[in-house]
């Protein structure tokens, strides 16, 4: 590293120039990276619901649809509305009964099932189905929906999953700049409190802009990322990698007192910092990599982007930031102020003198939260995380009010299944609790409308490329036990008539999401724990230290994840999966720092209590600065976001940073004091404390 450090210091202006130049392609890459707003598309592709979704998209062009609900509108005006919607760029078709028969013919001539599905005489309401040319997440479809909103603003209600995705994109895009501004502003406040220099906080923020922009730009290699990843990556990267910059600055200031020149001091600062932050970042990267083991591809999306972001943060900390500090050093030491975040000297004595009491109280609190932990409720439907006054949500509510319809299923079967079989299957499905209507090509065929008389558009809607389509409407809400049971019963009926038949739609995909997420939660928790356990074990050459450190953070995670039970909150399923591994990977560094200092003080001849007291006093300032930065970067988003999903995740991350920080400062020293004899026996070359015999006997 010495040669590398000397190169960075010698050519610091060139390093900074290259870094600035690389922002250009990184910005272009960030703009070109597609953002996916549909969580359900991250389900494993081999599931029946996802196979069915492919049929809808490629064979029937029904993967992106919207339902327009109209009340108290004369037929002539309704036809005009239909024509205006049909002319919108990106709309393939607006389907209403006028596509089946002349509007002068009484509607009662329609088959009863079709009439009941499309009309509500009591509320003088009807609906039309709008199909789009491209998938729901395509820009063309979203632009079409925005135009439809303007057309239907005072005349009709638009509902459906496609509208919800467009609403989600509009909210996230409008709020993203606010997320970044609040995160940066909050981190600046913490840095001013924890650093003496007035200029360094701004230098840090400029330095962190490089890895954040690089991370966004290099996401182009994945083709697309989820909106959750986009919204979280900036605030997480700020919070997780901020302490690397603090470590470098503190080491540089320490070396300035020993070296003849600033350049020589920075060389040694880079050499010493690179090894420490590389080891420290491994646990954070391991936590994010663990997300890649999820079957839900969203985990891989978040995991790879954030692991890459942490690695880029480390690289920029030892290249770009030293160059900036040296180029701006006259500002770094020009103006100073008093430190607000100081070492916790009194707290260090309190913790070590009453370590048994502190540990006993903590264990009592932990038991209460551990009992509440399994009782925390989780939701899986995207609509529940959105503002309820959005266009798509209002449209869905109107569909429920006027047509008793909340969920729509699409059954895709082999076209060789004869009409009698489909009719028999449809009749059995209609009898299921919660089903309001079943529509198929056979529903249009009868004594009043011969099959040959059906318009080509109708036949093409229900039969394409050797597949036939059956549409089922239900008044049950996606994600509930009732609708999941209904889907199981429906699936068994469909398989009787066609073993290759599949059911898709929002509700079946949500059901699969629940089942996949339950397995993923356990898999991610075990993987992240084992990876971080192994890294700590290799770092300390110890069997016992990783047990203590991981147990301490896991206890903090249990407390954090149990609080919603006492507040009556319901968590989004994504939060329940990712929070544990993020909190473990990002905050276990605090525990490693404390344990390292504890061993160092033991090697200086102090006994266990003295070593613990010095460790708390000397490490508390760094832990507070890092933990509060992590908290500040995320807590602001939880206050301003209208997206309940992002609000919940950021609140859990922010609260988890504080809880982990408290556990490491107040509880971990007690564990180190009590278990030091066991640590010594299970750790290679562990320092021997002063007065070993008396200490062991007392323990």
List keywords for this structure.
disordered C terminus, 699 residues, 5-stranded antiparallel beta sheet, alpha+beta, 9% strand, single chain
Mean pLDDT: 85
Q: Which residues sit in consecutive blocks of at least 5 with pLDDT less than 50?
A: 693-699
The biggest sheet amounts to:
5 strands, antiparallel
Please state the structural category.
Answer: alpha+beta
Describe this structure in words.
This protein is α+β, with helices and mostly antiparallel strands. It is 67% helix and 9% strand. The chain has 27 helices and 14 strands. The strands form four sheets. Strands 2, 3, 4, 5 and 6 form a five-stranded antiparallel sheet that branches. Strands 9, 10, 11, 12 and 13 form a five-stranded antiparallel sheet that branches. Strands 1-7 form a two-stranded parallel ribbon.
Topology:
Blueprint: H1 2-10, H2 12-32, E1 34-36, H3 48-60, E2 65-71, H4 75-86, E3 91-95, H5 112-118, E4 119-120, E5 125-132, H6 139-152, E6 156-159, H7 161-194, H8 200-218, E7 224-226, H9 227-256, H10 262-290, H11 297-317, H12 320-327, H13 329-332, H14 345-353, H15 355-372, E8 378-379, H16 391-403, E9 407-414, H17 419-430, E10 435-440, H18 441-444, H19 456-462, E11 463-464, E12 467-474, H20 481-497, E13 502-504, H21 506-540, H22 544-567, E14 571-572, H23 573-603, H24 608-640, H25 644-666, H26 668-681, H27 692-698
Parallel strand pairs: 1-7, 8-14
Antiparallel strand pairs: 2-5, 2-6, 3-5, 4-5, 9-12, 9-13, 10-12, 11-12
């Amino acid at each position: 590293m010495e040669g590398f450090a000397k190169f960075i210091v010698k050519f610091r202006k060139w390093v900074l120039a290259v870094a600035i130049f690389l922002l250009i392609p990184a910005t272009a890459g960030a703009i070109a990276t597609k953002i996916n707003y549909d969580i359900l598309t991250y389900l494993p592709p081999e599931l029946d619901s996802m196979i069915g979704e492919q049929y809808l998209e490629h064979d029937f062009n029904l993967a992106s649809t919207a339902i327009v609900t109209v009340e108290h509108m004369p037929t002539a005006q309704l036809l005009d509305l239909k024509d205006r919607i049909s002319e919108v760029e990106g709309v393939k078709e607006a389907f209403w009964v006028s596509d089946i028969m002349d509007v002068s013919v009484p509607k009662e001539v329609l088959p009863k099932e079709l009439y009941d599905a499309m009309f509500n005489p009591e509320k003088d309401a009807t609906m039309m189905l709008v199909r789009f040319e491209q998938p729901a997440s395509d820009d063309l479809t979203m632009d079409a929906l925005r135009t439809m909103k303007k057309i239907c603003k005072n005349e009709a209600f638009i509902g459906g999953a496609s509208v919800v995705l467009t609403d989600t994109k509009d909210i996230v895009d409008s709020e993203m700049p606010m997320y970044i501004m609040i995160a940066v502003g909050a981190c600046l406040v913490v840095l001013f409190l924890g650093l003496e220099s007035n200029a360094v906080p701004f230098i840090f923020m400029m330095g962190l802009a490089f890895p954040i922009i690089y991370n966004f730009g290099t996401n182009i290699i994945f083709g697309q990322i989820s909106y959750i990843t986009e919204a979280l990556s900036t605030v997480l990267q700020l919070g997780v990698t901020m302490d690397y910059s603090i470590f470098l600055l503190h080491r540089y200031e320490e070396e300035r007192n020993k070296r003849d020149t600033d350049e020589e001091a920075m060389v040694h600062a880079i050499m010493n910092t690179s090894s420490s932050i590389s080891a420290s970042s491994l646990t954070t990267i391991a936590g994010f990599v663990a997300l890649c083991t999820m079957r839900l591809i969203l985990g891989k999306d978040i995991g790879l982007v954030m692991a890459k972001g942490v690695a880029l943060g480390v690289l920029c900390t030892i290249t770009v930031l030293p160059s900036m500090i040296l180029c701006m050093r006259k500002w770094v030491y020009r103006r100073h102020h008093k430190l607000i975040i100081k070492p916790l000297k009194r707290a260090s004595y309190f913790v070590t003198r009453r370590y048994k009491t502190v540990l006993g109280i903590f264990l009592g609190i932990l038991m209460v939260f551990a009992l509440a932990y399994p009782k925390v409720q989780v939701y899986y439907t995207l609509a529940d995380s959105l503002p309820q006054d959005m266009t798509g949500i209002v449209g869905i509510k109107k569909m429920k009010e006027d047509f008793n319809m909340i969920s729509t299923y699409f059954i895709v079967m082999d076209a060789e299944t004869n009409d009698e079989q489909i009719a028999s299957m449809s009749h059995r499905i209609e009898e299921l609790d919660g089903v309001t209507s079943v529509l198929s090509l056979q529903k249009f065929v009868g004594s009043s409308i011969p099959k040959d008389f059906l318009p080509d558009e109708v036949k093409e809607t229900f039969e394409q490329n050797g597949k036939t389509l059956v549409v089922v409407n239900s008044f049950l809400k996606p994600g509930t036990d009732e609708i999941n049971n209904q889907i199981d019963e429906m699936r068994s009926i469909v398989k009787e008539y066609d073993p290759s038949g599949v059911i898709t739609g929002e509700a079946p995909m949500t059901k699969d999401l629940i089942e996949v997420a339950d397995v993923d939660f356990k898999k991610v928790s075990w993987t992240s724990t084992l990876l971080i356990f192994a890294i700590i074990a290799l770092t300390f050459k110890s069997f016992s230290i990783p047990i203590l450190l991981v147990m301490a953070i896991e206890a903090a995670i249990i407390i954090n994840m149990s609080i919603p039970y006492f507040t009556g909150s319901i968590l989004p399923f994504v939060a329940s999966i990712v929070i544990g591994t993020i909190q473990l990977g990002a905050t276990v560094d605090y525990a490693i720092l404390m344990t390292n200092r504890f061993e160092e003080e033991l090697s200086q001849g102090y006994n266990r209590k003295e070593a613990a007291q010095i460790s708390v006093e000397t490490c508390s300032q760094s832990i507070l600065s890092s933990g509060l930065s992590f908290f500040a970067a995320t807590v602001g988003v939880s206050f301003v976001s209208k997206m309940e999903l992002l609000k919940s995740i950021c609140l859990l991350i922010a609260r988890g940073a504080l809880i982990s920080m408290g556990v490491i400062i107040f509880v971990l020293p007690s564990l180190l004091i009590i278990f030091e004899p066991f640590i010594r026996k299970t750790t290679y070359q562990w320092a021997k404390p002063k007065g070993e015999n008396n200490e062991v006997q007392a323990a």
